């Protein structure tokens, strides 16, 4: 007699995986990036558009950030940093560095974590290099790690919606956002950033 239980179990698993894919696809802070088959110029064009959208969302979430971005010597935007974990986690994303309002290079970010967490999520990360020295150290490094090469002061937004002035005066300032807005209490320590060859 034909056993239908394995067939039902496989069908249920396929439905669950498909549903999870739809849920995680909706967890991005920006529009999905181009497929791996897209040309380098298409990927960069998509990344530039996503960076613009990310900055627009930042200005909406924290209007005071627009002045901070304008004063920065360099602005590094990672529109879509994907993370997934089950006890051991990893995250990866690509972004663009802008200096003087112009694209000055493309970078990747990676980080790992260990903890009892499961699932996947997407976040956007913006780093502001507030001094020439901080920007030059970043651009001249062969691989730059938060905590080892520089400390990133993740911005705190007060109850009045204003940026903490002490944080804003640090050499490297960071913002982290997800679909719910700015994330508080986030540590970027151990995040590694490397320049993309092409």
Give the arrangement of secondary structure elements:
Elements: H1 5-25, H2 40-61, H3 65-71, E1 74-99, E2 102-129, H4 132-139, E3 144-145, E4 153-154, H5 165-168, E5 172-178, E6 181-182, E7 192-195
Parallel strand pairs: 4-5
Antiparallel strand pairs: 1-2, 2-5, 2-7, 3-7, 5-6
Domain Ysc84 actin-binding: 111-195
InterPro entries: Ysc84_actin-binding
Signal peptide: 1-25
Précis, in short:
The protein has 198 residues and is α+β, with helices and mostly antiparallel strands. The chain is 31% helix and 36% strand.
Give an overview of the whole structure:
The relative contact order is 0.16. Strands 1, 2, 3, 4, 5, 6 and 7 form a 7-stranded mixed sheet that branches. The chain has helices at residues 5-25, 40-61, 65-71, 132-139, 165-168; strands spanning 74-99, 102-129, 144-145, 153-154, 172-178, 181-182, 192-195. The chain has one domain (36-193). The termini are far apart. With 198 residues, the chain is of the alpha+beta class. 31% of the residues lie in helices and 36% in strands. The longest helix has 22 residues, at 40-61. Residues 4-34 have low confidence and may be disordered. It contains 5 helices and 7 strands, in the order H-H-H-E-E-H-E-E-H-E-E-E. Residues 111-195 form the Ysc84 actin-binding domain. It comes from Achromobacter animicus. Residues 1-25 form the signal peptide. This is Ysc84 actin-binding domain-containing protein.
């Amino acid at each position: 007699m034909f056993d239908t239980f394995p067939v039902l179990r496989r069908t249920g698993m396929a439905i669950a995986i498909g549903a999870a894919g739809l849920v995680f696809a909706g967890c991005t802070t920006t529009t999905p990036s181009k497929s791996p088959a897209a040309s380098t110029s298409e990927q960069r064009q998509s990344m530039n558009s996503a960076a613009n959208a990310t900055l627009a969302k930042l200005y909406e979430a924290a209007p005071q950030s627009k002045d901070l971005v304008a004063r920065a010597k360099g602005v590094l935007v990672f529109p879509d940093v994907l993370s997934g974990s089950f006890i051991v986690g990893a995250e990866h994303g690509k972004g663009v560095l802008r200096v003087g309002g112009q694209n000055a290079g493309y970078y990747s970010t990676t980080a790992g974590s260990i903890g009892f967490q499961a699932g996947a999520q997407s976040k956007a990360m913006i780093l502001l290099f507030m001094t020439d020295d901080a920007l030059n150290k970043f651009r001249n490094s062969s691989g730059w790690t938060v905590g080892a090469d520089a400390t990133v002061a993740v911005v705190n937004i007060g109850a009045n919606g204003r940026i903490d002035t002490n944080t804003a005066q640090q050499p490297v300032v960071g913002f982290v956002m997800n679909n719910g807005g700015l994330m508080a209490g986030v540590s970027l320590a151990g995040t590694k950033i490397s320049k993309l060859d092409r």
